[in-house]
Amino acid sequence: MEVVDECIQGTYDLTAEEEEVGSRQVEDIDGEGVSLQAEAQEPAHNGVSCQPNQGNDDDGRGWDQGHRVTFTGCRNHSHGPHPAGFGRHGVCAHENKELAKAREALPLIEDSSNCDIVKATQYGIFERCKELVEAGYDVRQPDKENVSLLHWAAINNRLDLVKFYISKGAVVDQLGGDLNSTPLHWAIRQGHLPMVILLLQYGADPALIDGEGFSSIHLAVLFQHMPIIAYLISKGQSVNMTDLSGQTPLMLSAHKVLGPEPTGFLLKFNPSLNVVDKIHKNTPLHWAVAAGNINAVDKLLEAGSSLDIQNVKGETPLDLALQNKNQLIIHMLKTEAKMRANRKFRLWRWLQKCELFLLLMLSVITMWAVGYILDFNSDSWLLKGCLLVTLFFLTSLFPRFLVGYKSLVYLPNFPHILQSTPFYFVFILSIIGSLYFFYKTWATDPGFTKSSEEERKMNIITLAETGCLDFRTFCTSCLIRKPLRSLHCHVCNSCVARYDQHCLWTGRCIGFGNHHYYIFFLFFLAFMCDWIMYESFLYWSNHCATTFGEDGLWTYLSQIVACSPWVLYIFMLATFHFSWSTFLLINQLFQIAFLGLTSHERTSLLKQSRHMKQPLSLRRTPYNLGFTQNLADFFHCGCFGLAKPCAVDWTSQYTMVFHPAKEKVLRSV
């Protein structure tokens, strides 16, 4: 069977963020080096520029003091395009206009053989570097700024030169530069995951610290390179490793990096939440509060950070927030403290345990109360209106305490005419069917991807070393390799196989495991609501004195309201639920049978087609196998022998599988 690997080492369109990264710009990284992402992955050769277009000193460095200007490569096996916060440097497989302009602006040198070894290393001129080394140049010799050749190769992601220099005796952990860093530190600052992998394979020590007291994982956190963080931890570096001041990566993230990441990313690796640093005795929550990092505070509170630990001055996180007068953080801390105090009471724990049952009871009681008020033996609509307002106020104010009406005999009886119709048995079946398939939709695993901690680390290492550790194949929330057609649901906080939607009406994700149950639920719900609407009209025609033909619609409405407000109330509920369930059912069946797509896939393709010159056909996708085959695969049935279902486990499907009927067409192309 033909398969196509999801991690394609080919070309793809650059995003606006990547073009910005790839354009000519100088970035200050605390004196450790700056990359201009512009050159192709092949080594520079004769005719390529060896100097930036600004005035440079002889060693090829510096527009400004404290900046190093280099010309680095974009390799198609790096960690790929990524959203904000997933790393600072993307990858590209083809040149864009910005990169072309960057190269055109640089003066050309007719003969690259005139470059010294530092420049040749910066620009990746392998043959020139090899010539100079074989002529007797010591690869361990640093330049006048105490920077070795291995540092220059690492910061510019010159993999071939790193291999060559190490084979010639270069020290993989040689210290150099203003911050006394190793080549691994320089590579991490620039976000070069392939270089990090290579240096670790050659024995680089990620636990070494630089002149500022940071180890490799601390630098990766400070520069927000999540793929490198994941790879270092998966290779065995402790997520709780401390720097010289005793700060863990989580403390640095909470203190130095504003925003939810990489704090949320680090929490996936189960770091210590309540460890304190050596000097101030602050926890990560202390540091987040001190920095006013609202997102980090929220993440740490959600993870269960202690609110009671005091630092060296005897201050709790709340004390720091009060000093800083950050009202939002003060509110967050006080609210969390209240919730944790409530959890100590047995009644509160019981309410949380029975939350679903109580919510179901509340909905039944509310429905009964509305019907009872509407049918109350009183002609005063002002009184009924006040009672309804009071009811809705109480249900919104005390949703977990309006319980206790255990007997349902007080529910208003549906008119007897509805029980005498020949459709009564069908109605009961539709109720049972809708309740059963609602339960199956809610209780069945929609396709949550699961893996152990060891499996996650192995996946990270495998994806990183094969050049596929990017957001297309790796979920930074679940720390797993994403199966085809999966998506991370932020409500359920898990990746869902063959993701369709997070359903508002069921409170559950719809995916590979429960999608077919969801279709049956919509069918039975629409049928039941349609039946209720029909029987409501039947009741009004037989038991209410109406003059629709003589007096018109408005008079008819007032007559049925006066006849039985509760029946009208049920009719309106049935009409509302019939409308959305029927719409969703028709839409779902169309997508399944004629397109072979999920709701999420269809929406994504429609968004993409808006930016294309030619309209995109939703029917021409690898998942559309024809009307009969689509239905057979979805419902796992043979359609009375018309088709044979093809069983695909989308929870562990990482490559494209072509149906035998389409495989022949693929091979003939």
Automatic annotation (TrEMBL):
Query: Which positions does the entry assign to ANK repeats?
Result: 145-177, 179-211, 212-244, 280-312
- Which SUPFAM superfamilies is this protein grouped with? Ankyrin repeat
Per the UniProt record, which EC number(s) apply here? Answer: 2.3.1.225
Task: List the subcellular locations.
Answer: Cytoplasmic vesicle membrane; Golgi apparatus membrane
Under catalytic activity, the entry for this protein gives: L-cysteinyl-[protein] + hexadecanoyl-CoA = S-hexadecanoyl-L-cysteinyl-[protein] + CoA
Membrane topology is:
Multi-pass membrane protein
PROSITE patterns referenced in this protein's UniProt entry, alphabetically:
ANK_REP_REGION, ANK_REPEAT, DHHC
Entry protein name: Palmitoyltransferase
